[in-house]
Design goal:
heterodimer; A: 114 residues; mainly beta; seven-stranded mixed beta sheet; four-stranded antiparallel beta sheet; 51% strand; B: 114 residues; six-stranded mixed beta sheet; 0% helix; 54% strand
């Protein structure tokens, strides 16, 4: 079945450590996105990529980094510079070839900083 | 710029009663509008979408929404609530030329009681 796989589902990290969240899709979608979700704040866009080897900052990119070396993969690194990293992180993709506007989401990764 | 306002962070209905979740948007150009549902510790699932054409759109699980341009609204309804409808619901807006960078509302948690 096609879909988006995020791993790990739960992750604990000590302050000052970088951590990388994985996002893999087998939907053959060109565009991929990372959102952060906090209680009562909805989803906020961190980074997005419309094509391999290209990505743009979203609304809250500070303290995060991404890469897009392969079409199916869009990993997110939460760096030690992110002041409040505890959150639920959601990866999404979009089928640009069909002109579709909706996003398909993975199951999310919950990061807790101890 | 675009934005979404969801009135009511929590809504409680009895099983079998009408579900009405409110969403108002602002957009300088014709919008694309979406409703997503999220169950605890899961990703977002698309319920329905409005892009062009018919303003009354039907989605999965018996939900529907009506795009009202004059009221800048896209309220979600379901005639009869079921216990399985208990979840968090997000309204989102996008528009042409923004790489589908959707802007999400803060969410409405729906509780269904016996």
């Amino acid at each position: 079945d096609g879909g988006i796989t995020q791993s790990p589902k739960y992750l604990f990290r000590k302050e000052g450590q970088n951590v990388t969240l994985s996002c893999e899709q087998n939907l053959n979608h060109d565009a991929m996105y990372w959102y952060r979700q906090d209680p009562g704040q909805g989803l906020r866009l961190i980074y997005y990529s419309q094509i391999v080897n290209d990505f743009q900052k979203g609304d809250i990119a500070e303290g995060y980094s991404v890469s897009r070396e392969k079409k199916e993969s869009f990993p997110l690194t939460v760096t030690s510079a992110q002041k409040n990293p505890t959150a639920f992180y959601l990866c999404a993709s979009r089928d640009t070839d069909s002109g579709a506007r909706e996003l398909f989401f993975g199951e999310g990764s919950r990061l807790t900083v101890l | 710029a675009q934005s979404v306002t969801q009135l009511g962070s929590h809504v409680s209905v009895s099983e079998g009663a009408l579900v009405l979740l409110r969403c108002n948007y602002s957009s300088s150009v014709p919008p694309y509008l979406f409703w997503y549902v999220q169950y605890p510790n899961q990703g977002l699932q698309l319920l329905l979408k409005y892009t062009t054409g018919a303003t009354l759109v039907k989605g999965i699980n018996g939900f529907e929404a009506e795009f009202k341009k004059s009221e800048t609204s896209f309220h979600l309804t379901k005639p009869s609530a079921h216990m399985s409808d208990a979840a968090e619901y997000f309204c989102a807006v996008g528009r042409t030329g923004t790489a589908s960078k959707l802007t999400f509302g803060t969410g409405t948690r729906l509780q269904v009681t016996l």
